[in-house]
Amino acid sequence: MQKTAGTLLLLLMVLMLTFTGCKKKDKPMVDINSIRTDGSHDDRYIFREEIEKEKARAHRSGDPGFK
Fold it and tell me: How deeply is 17 buried, as exposed, middle or buried, from its count of CB atoms within 10 A (0-12, 13-18, 19+)?
């Protein structure tokens, strides 16, 4: 009985240490192409996908393409 309790206690401690261990935190990263030589950021590059979507939407809704 004592051997089983000791083994269970050891197993619980190992599991507790495993789940409460240090986790790597993500650092906020900026794409190197968005930084200008003077140190400022080019927001157009950061939001380039959204800008392209808006241009596509404007192009589609602008002219119906038939007359």
Answer: exposed
User: Structural domain boundaries of the chain?
Assistant: 34-62
Cβ within 8 Å of residue 33, ≥6 positions away: 42, 45
Distance from C-alpha of 60 to C-alpha of 53, rounded to nearest angstrom? 11
Q: What is the pLDDT of residues 11-61, one digit of tens each?
A: 998 888 777 766 777 777 777 777 777 877 667 666 778 888 888 888 877
Cα distance between residue 19 and residue 12, in whole Å: 11
Furthest-apart CA atoms within the chain: distance in Å = 90
Q: What pLDDT does 63 receive? A: 61
Cβ contact 63:56 at 8 Å: no
